[in-house]
């Protein structure tokens, strides 16, 4: 079976090609799937996509007309896929339900530490041989309070690191994680968590119920000197409201690995273009904000697991098997 993989990063390509070697023929493209690129998929029974692919109704319809039967997404998130339309069209959709939670949890703490200790500003200064310490003072984390919104696998890994720092642990989720409780986490209502935490980190999926879970009201409940970290999904944070609070001088720092309008920007080189997204352009000008381009998952271990799961999803489809990764079963 021929497979077309969209949105493949340079580091991913040899891993994907090696994983499929001797099993199926795979063609890797660095372009992302959208309305402009979907005609390329004509004739391919199976395609593989990244989290920033556009799998809306029109794209899915074009895929179905072109003969595509399987969509194997290389991510845990699937909010970019119209599953109802896919089911009506008879398309099988699978995702990666699990990969190393440590990749994201460790990166979330990397962002928190970077903004707390002013690492980016310090690095930029020393490149100019400016070795002053003015404006670089951070805070000890030991004894401070961290609020974790979402205590699944990634949230638990994040909490374990916080426990190692000697922090007080607050959690918010639909159900308590016994492992986090054992570490000393106290589950509270979201408003109490936001008002009490020195560091707030988001690890919930993007659902209608969690869209803008950090809105203007939530931001105003947070401490003026709190740190906000989002390494989950951009739509969890109302970015315009966040910019407004930052302009008012609130929050000690913000670390973002995701952005709600990242499609068409993240994973691409826009350095020679004028970026028309005024909100993002304003956001990256704040000295206490660090923005990275959805790279928290990007470790050898996590990407290797993602590729292996994708190969298994294709193999299961070819064999007529259904796995726990299937979002829309074979019709």
Automatic annotation (TrEMBL):
SUPFAM superfamilies registered for this protein in UniProt: Formate/glycerate dehydrogenase catalytic domain-like, NAD(P)-binding Rossmann-fold domains
Enzyme class: oxidoreductase
Domain D-isomer specific 2-hydroxyacid dehydrogenase catalytic: start-end pairs: 8-327
Keyword NAD: yes
Native source organism of the sequence: Streptomyces noboritoensis
Protein's name according to its UniProt entry: 2-hydroxyacid dehydrogenase
Domain of life: Bacteria
Its EC number(s): 1.1.1.28
Molecular function terms from GO: D-lactate dehydrogenase (NAD+) activity
Span of domain D-isomer specific 2-hydroxyacid dehydrogenase NAD-binding: 110-296
Keyword field contains NAD: yes
Pfam families: 2-Hacid_dh, 2-Hacid_dh_C
UniProt keywords, alphabetically: NAD, Oxidoreductase
InterPro entries for this protein: D-isomer_2_OHA_DH_cat_dom (IPR006139), D-isomer_DH_CS (IPR029753), D-isomer_DH_CS1 (IPR029752), D-isomer_DH_NAD-bd (IPR006140), D-LDH-like (IPR058205), NAD(P)-bd_dom_sf (IPR036291)
Family: Belongs to the D-isomer specific 2-hydroxyacid dehydrogenase family.
